[in-house]
Amino acid sequence: MGKHKENIKRNNHWNTQGSELDETQEPDRRSNGDYGKELARLQEEIAHLQAWVKKTGARIVIVFEGRDAAGKGGVIKRITERVSPRVFRVVALPAPTDREKTQIYMQRYIQQLPAAGEVVIFDRSWYNRPGVERVMGFCSEEKAQRFLELAPRFEAAMIESGIVLLKYFLDVSEEEQERRFRQRIDDPLRQWKLSPMDIESYRRWWDYTRAYNDMIRMTDTDYAPWWIVPSNDKKRARINCISHILSSIPYERVKFEEPELGKRQKRPDDFVEDTRIRRTVPNVY
């Protein structure tokens, strides 16, 4: 492990111990300045990770699952906002089409797996089957159980092919989820985040709890373990999760080859300005 990754782990003052959600965490009470500095430092490391992925042709898959309103989108946004979408690709598949429903279940996910030099982030993944599909009755109990039996084999095959697979489950308390749902109801900028499925997940908290417990119990393996991210505090969850991702991938810093810009060409003697009127965006600011 590189020295810079040791620094990630040593300097991370945001770490929480254990996998149980700390119900006493105060949501979003952290200093914006401290949070911003730590996030900027980690995003710089993500840029170094990107350079290593491009150079080595590494293939990385990061799966994000969790409670509705647990903050998956926020973590993914902070991972990807300073890197290239050609390297870091976010996959958030819609409901399957009629054609896709006739395919092997994993088929539409397999075609999203990375090629050399790519990081694919699944904002929900093949684990829709033992989660929302099972709870909402979109698949039979028999199919859900069969998925739970086969998923570890599928993930073993991915890893044997050379893919680095990381799986994260973001968890929140009942009280914090309700607070976030009510925020969405009251804020026009967040109302788009509130779907009918979110409302059902609120009503069926314990159905989802049972389903998620089964999912994690049956698909948590030594080669593809589940990592629980306590997410009552969004900022803490983001820092902890990004730090863990960086410490889990054996990347090294790649020396940046500074390009030579050279000299800009001179204006040609025969160049004539185009004097036709063009449409310009009005100044309103």
TrEMBL record:
<dbReference type="Pfam" id="PF03976">
    <property type="entry name" value="PPK2"/>
</dbReference>
<keyword id="KW-0418">Kinase</keyword>
<comment type="subunit">
    <text>Homotetramer.</text>
</comment>
<comment type="function">
    <text>Uses inorganic polyphosphate (polyP) as a donor to convert GDP to GTP or ADP to ATP.</text>
</comment>
<dbReference type="GO" id="GO:0006754">
    <property type="term" value="P:ATP biosynthetic process"/>
</dbReference>
<dbReference type="InterPro" id="IPR022488">
    <property type="entry name" value="PPK2-related"/>
</dbReference>
<dbReference type="GO" id="GO:0008976">
    <property type="term" value="F:polyphosphate kinase activity"/>
</dbReference>
<dbReference type="InterPro" id="IPR022486">
    <property type="entry name" value="PPK2_PA0141"/>
</dbReference>
<keyword id="KW-0066">ATP synthesis</keyword>
<feature type="region of interest" description="Disordered">
    <location>
        <begin position="1"/>
        <end position="34"/>
    </location>
</feature>
<comment type="similarity">
    <text>Belongs to the polyphosphate kinase 2 (PPK2) family. Class I subfamily.</text>
</comment>
<protein>
    <recommendedName>
        <fullName>ADP/GDP-polyphosphate phosphotransferase</fullName>
        <ecNumber>2.7.4.-</ecNumber>
    </recommendedName>
</protein>
<dbReference type="InterPro" id="IPR016898">
    <property type="entry name" value="Polyphosphate_phosphotransfera"/>
</dbReference>
<dbReference type="InterPro" id="IPR027417">
    <property type="entry name" value="P-loop_NTPase"/>
</dbReference>
<feature type="domain" description="Polyphosphate kinase-2-related">
    <location>
        <begin position="31"/>
        <end position="255"/>
    </location>
</feature>
<keyword id="KW-0808">Transferase</keyword>
